[in-house]
Amino acid sequence: MPTPKPVPLFFAFPDGVFDYVCAECDALCCKGQGFGGNLNREMAFLLKQYPALGSMANTRHRDYIDISSPAGKCYFLQPDNLCQIETEHGRDKKPGVCMIFPFNRFRRIGNTVAVSPHFMCPLRVKIPSRPGEVTGTHATIEATIRESEMLDPKYVEWYMRGSKASPDHTKAILTRETRFRDDCAAALGRASFTELLATHSEDPVALNKFIKRTARLMNWRPSPENGRDYIDDVLIATASSFRMDMLDATPERMIRFLGLAERVLRPLFALSTEPPKPQAICTVVQSSQALLRLLSRGDDTVNVRQKAKSAAFGHPDLVFASLLTLRDISSIGVLKALENGFKRLPTASDRAVLANHVAAQVTD
């Protein structure tokens, strides 16, 4: 039988820009997240070596099995934050998902697997990027992923969410996202995030107006004008990864999403007395994702779920605003419906509460 072609990879972040050191980590990845891998590679050995693990198996698909682990720390996490399996039995016996972490957020784009970092890990951003010198080197990550056998077609089909695009559309998506990622790599240490987004916007003037309009609508505080800074580089380094969750959106809506993310971030971290870490910045974007996806639609109309839930806000103005917004959003568009609903909600907190509730009730 001919050897099957290896699954192609797309790295949704610049080469050599991320780095991590396990021994210096707070080991969040090893606290309650579980682990798993291939019964034909490492998991058969581990289940034989440590029979008690069998009672914590929770899912299996063909040769792939997952094991639950305690919230406090993994069974195998040592006091020095290193893995007991690796120190006692060698790296090749580590569970596959542990082996490739933190570069284990996968999404299929046709037959290609897009790889993004997991921001549970306190990754560092290196400027200038250092391919070949840091753990975030594409070639190093690819070798580890292929060694883990996580790209076995059976596993890819079961575990990795994918797009339903046609082959021609898939090729266009990969071409577009490669260009955006490479432009991000070129912008690191040089351009501001706003400048980068403007170069990829269909209409930079309209984009700026949209962001200002949405910020006024949400009653977000003005962004401090401090010039180009570290936040620019973190956003530039991570922007391609955030786009992987929006491949169904138009390119301009992706740019709107990223522009709004920066608009939310800057006033928040201006409250801090020290520069935010990449992990903190990315956590804010991820926790705001549903809201930003909704707002990025602008005046587009959206459909409300057939069984939209009315929230028990415990406040009549919020209840009324919710009913009004959900009634109108499918006919007059997102921002206009929110504008009507917000008329009795002057505070940024109530507007955020309502908009997040509405985001959970619409089909995206």
How do the strands and helices of this protein lay out in sequence?
Blueprint: E1 9-11, E2 18-19, E3 35-38, H1 43-49, E4 57-61, E5 64-67, H2 84-89, H3 96-100, E6 105-109, E7 112-116, E8 124-125, H4 138-148, H5 153-159, H6 167-187, H7 193-200, H8 204-218, H9 230-243, H10 251-269, H11 278-287, H12 289-295, E9 303-304, H13 316-332, H14 334-341, H15 348-361, E10 362-363
Parallel strand pairs: 1-7
Antiparallel strand pairs: 2-8, 3-5, 4-5, 6-7, 9-10
Description:
This protein has 364 residues and is mostly helical. It contains 15 helices and ten strands. It has three domains: 151 residues, no CATH class; 129 residues, no CATH class; 61 residues, no CATH class. The strands form four sheets. It has a three-stranded mixed beta sheet. The protein is globular and about 65 Å long. The model has no long low-confidence stretch (mean pLDDT 90).
Could you provide a short overview of the structure?
The chain is mostly helical and about 375 residues long. It has 15 helices and ten strands. A hairpin with a 2-residue loop joins strand 4 (about 55-60) and strand 5 (about 65).
